[in-house]
TrEMBL record:
Region (Disordered) location: 1-76, 107-222
PANTHER family to which the protein is assigned, alphabetical: PRKR-INTERACTING PROTEIN 1
A molecular function GO annotation: protein kinase inhibitor activity
The protein's name in its UniProt record: DUF1168-domain-containing protein
Domain of life: Eukaryota
Lineage: Eukaryota, Fungi, Dikarya, Basidiomycota, Ustilaginomycotina
């Protein structure tokens, strides 16, 4: 009984190339081909032009009616004229539909924007109401009249506080007694500490000088 020789590893069937590539592989192959020669200019095709047909003639010398039979010599003339007229009407209808779609999109976009703005205003009113309640509670805890508390915007609140600080301390500035740190207690700020630029550095320098003088004046133990 004879046995046929078995095929060795060298006689393995070659790997067949894939001819049906999925979109991901097609895009990867296109990118590899594009990046293989980066010095070449990339041809970008122009956008498609809108379809248009020849405008109708101003003067039509021979008007062919639909009474021309299929066997007459003028039937093909009427047929082409009718086809061009149908194409022209279709283009007009497509243009009108595009205009209607654009107007509908603009209307829906405006309605969506108004809805978002209304929702934003509602949320802002809730936040301001919550902040006002917190300020009134803080004023009542300090023994102040909560009915006089008003809610201002962040920048306006800071500007008003700085303006009030300047107005309340004009006399001190004229006398030359400018303090380094000022604490403002009013209804708007709610006890916020305002500090001038460079105040911390000046205080630290003064504190270091006083501490060094105190150390020099203290008697040392023998």
């Amino acid at each position: 009984m004879s046995t046929s020789p078995q095929a060795g590893p060298s006689a393995a069937s070659p790997i067949r190339k894939r001819h049906h590539l999925d979109p991901h592989e097609q895009q990867a192959r296109a990118l590899e081909k594009l990046l293989a020669h980066p010095e070449r200019q990339v041809h970008i095709p122009a956008p498609p032009r809108e379809k248009s047909i020849r405008p109708p003639r101003e003067i039509q010398k021979n008007v062919v009616g639909s009474s021309a039979g299929a066997g007459s010599g003028e039937f093909h003339v009427y047929k082409h004229a009718r086809r061009r007229e149908y194409e022209r009407i279709k283009l007009m209808e497509d243009g009108a539909n595009k205009i209607m779609q654009a107007e509908e999109f603009a209307r829906q976009h405006a309605a969506k924007v108004m809805q978002d703005e209304a929702k934003t205003d509602k949320n802002r009113a809730k936040r301001e109401k919550k902040k006002l309640a917190a300020l009134k509670a803080r004023a009542a805890a300090k023994g102040q009249n909560p009915d006089k508390v008003k809610l201002h915007d962040g920048p306006g609140r800071g500007d008003g506080a700085r303006a009030g600080r300047r107005d309340s301390n004009d006399g001190d500035d004229d006398d030359g007694e400018a303090s380094k740190r000022r604490r403002i207690h009013n209804e708007e700020t709610g006890g916020i500490l305002f500090r001038k630029k460079g105040d911390d550095d000046d205080e630290e320098e003064e504190g270091d000088g006083e501490s060094s003088r105190g150390e020099e004046g203290e008697p040392r133990d023998a």
